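protien #1 (seq + structre)
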Amino acid sequence: MAPPTYQDYLALDSRAIPDVLRPAPALHEALGTQPLDAARYTSREFFDLECERMWPRVWQMACREEELPAAGSFVVYEIVERSFVVMRGPDGRLRAFHNSCPHRGRQLLTGQGHVERVRCGFHGISWATDGSLQSLPCSWDFAHVAPGDWALSEVSVATWGGFVFLNMDPAAPPLDEYLGVLPAHFARWPLEQCWKSAHVAKAIDCNWKVAQEAFMESYHVIATHPQILGVIADANSQYDLYGDHVSRNLAAFGAPSPHLGEEGVPQRQIVDQMLAMWRKGQASASGEQGAGNARAVLGDISRRAFARSYEGDFEAATDAELLDAIVYNLFPNFSPWGGFAPNIVYRWRPNGRDVGSCIMEVMILKRLPRGGRRPAPVPTHWLGESEPWVSAEELPILGAVIDQDMQNMPYVQRGLRASARGKVQLGRYQECRIRHHHRTLDRYLER
């Protein structure tokens, strides 16, 4: 007997299902089954090609809008060896500048904060927060430089969902076009109505794609996260592909893994395990365990907890939107979760020009109470080399799970270097999002 599909779980939901959770056309068959070259993760030449042809031409999430609340607020975003200052100007506009002095190239700002002006520490040249030149010491010595050449060089900036994106390519498509289905899907779960309550980052000893791909499929749950098999329908997750830039994984929580057999897990046991996970994470739960379908019981508990915490009406929220992993990826390195639970957001970046190292970041977005003031976003909590993710108390449930993923990533990188075949085999369906990601990457590299 075949296990239930994700759509079968939706058919039992206690609320009406929105169209956005229905499956996309099955595009995975067109991707083929050819293996990937291991060199895509280990080769300096391939990495350099990404730096030359891909990173300069894609939209990248740089920061949250709430991190730029006033004129002069700035965040420095870095990718490979490029550095940008994302700043709110005196006119309220968001701009992004190359973080380099037009004079001798000194980096202008680091980290994030607030300035009244941008001033180069080398020779004292300064700019207004809109990038226009403000002061040039000994200007008489630069009569040969056109005045317009002193303005800070800009790149394209656009926003979606409370996030600020930048793109270095002046010929890039508009962000709205690049986002594909994301605006329509997230209209039901508006991330702009959230605030950043956690932001944890760490350098990892693997290629950025190795780290990202560990979070693009549920196939690894059976070996990497066996403690949650009783509450996640992993092997029957749904995978959706949308155009070139967007893909999605839908995994049902409050339902047992097919790996546990046809008898599965008693519904009451599923409720107990989920509540134990939530309580460990200090999530609001009523303690009323109830009886019947576990997902409906857990959905009711979550619905009441959300109504209390966020002072809103969540009666129409489905069990799926309150419980499930609804994980989107936007090419190349941004992954926001959908639904109504505190939304997880991932970002992965190369660590400088190190092929075998990357930076992984985890954010938690919480919904604003109705009519409530937006709290100040938290600063980034950088974990040291020997610090586990579980030491980040702001990731109470997620930290321990990520630490299990960390037990794989460095060894994947080492194994790819040691591979006798030099190939990576992928499942036709469960790992189709990874193949889809590489197909899009190839399209950028071939241009």
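ok now protien #2
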Amino acid sequence: MRILHTGDWHLGHTLREHTRAAEHAVFLDWLVSTCGERQVDALLIAGDVFETANPPPYAQRLWFDFLGQLKRACPRIQVVVIAGNHDGSSRLCAPAELLAALDVRIVGTLQRTASGRPLVEPLLIPLRDRDGVVAALCVAIPFLRSIDVVAALPAVPVAAVDGELLLPRPGELPGGKADAADPVLAGMRLLHDELFAAARAQLRPGQALVAMAHGYLVGGALSELSERKVLGGNQHALPLDLFPDDCAYVALGHLHRPQALAGREHVRYCGSPLPLAMPERGYRHQVAFADLAAGRLLKTWVKNTPRPVPLLRLPEHGELDPEAALLQCAALPPRDPAQPEELRPLLEVAVRLRQPAPGIGERIAAALADKAARLVHIDVVRAGSGAPLAGAEPGPALARLSPEQVFVRRYQKDHDGAPTPELLAAFRELHEQVEHEAGR
């Protein structure tokens, strides 16, 4: 059987004020075609379908339109979806019973029995090959909050205030494993052990064990501007050995850079299908495939996703002085009236200010008014020392400085050199005016 692994779509995402709806629509149309052309049997979506817990109506429409088109193009395909940390699990799961009739399974939360035991069965999903035979069993683990994970630990006092977990002290934790001192990792390990034990009990000869999860695993490369650190951040990076060696494939979501972990081609982040922040413009965004037969992995491979809207930066690396930035903006291609607004390139301009440059933002925006690129952001980098105004001295030092000394230090913090005589004269005139007004 063939699995296609994707995730981190973030439908409803905007880059500053620019919607990405048209780009997502291109990707989803491409994904429908790819599933048909590549004869995909199961589509695994590893979380963060939406950008927010309450996505805008157009984002929900993209989602449901996609599912309808997919089932019309590929009637036999199975779809398995887990909630990510951006998704609102209740909203994602609201139509779950209806979508189950279309072979779309959504796992939004970890349910528990009245006694607190995790309900394992909803997380174990059989996957069928093109002949309709169960060829794999997917352990589908949605994003779990810290308090959900720690609840798996026996006899551990757990409390929460305003939704924030109050962790017990290490001495209060059971167990003798290396991570027993961390209740989040200890709870996650117990939960994974139970899930995979239950999965193995259901596996039949010739069936592969597949896992899907959403979180930050040790060794994964983060995109700092668009990925929220989950489960407490790097201190709760999940260890790779949570996923046992008998997993034929592990489909991960959360990190936007596609990558295999620790040289294991079968443990993989598919990455996001399009760049969600300017630093991600250099990623090779893709979906991943896993081919399975006789209970084992035959191969993994990837296919790059389309990028209908280029993300540009002036300059590609570093920053430009203001006049150089204006010249390069003026040299950009003019706008093509036939090109749809939502498919025009997105542009970030990086400027280094060695001296004050009042109005530089307005001048750059004006230079781009009739250009093909849409201005996303002006990244201003100041060339000063960045030193604190009072130096390393204790608090009263700033109070001992004259207003003019504070002004000069503030200037040097942001800019090269000292203020010009004209600027100092203007400051002194304003200062005298303020003192005169105060003395009235």
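The chain is about 30% helix and 25% strand.
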